[in-house]
Amino acid sequence: MQTTIQPILPVSGDLLRVGGAFTPGFLDPDPSRRLALVGEKPFLEFGFNEWRKWEALDEVPAVPEFSLHLGRTAICEGPREQARYIDYVMDQSATRRNKPTSIGVHVTGDRALGGGSFGLHSYFSGTKEEEERAVRFLSDLNRTSGLPVWVENANCYSASARGILDAWQAVTRICEKTGSGLIVDLAHLYIDAVNCGVPVEVLLGAIPWSQVVELHLSGVRTGRDGTLHDGHSEAVHEGVWSLLDTVLDQRLITETEPVTVIVEHADITWTDRADQYYADFARAQSALERHHRARTEGASNPEPHDYGVPYCRAYLRQLCNGWIPGLAQATEQRGLSYVDLFDQWVDDVRARGKRIVLNLDEIPPAERPGAVSAPQDLLAYAKEKLR
Question: pTM here?
Answer without folding.
Answer: 0.83
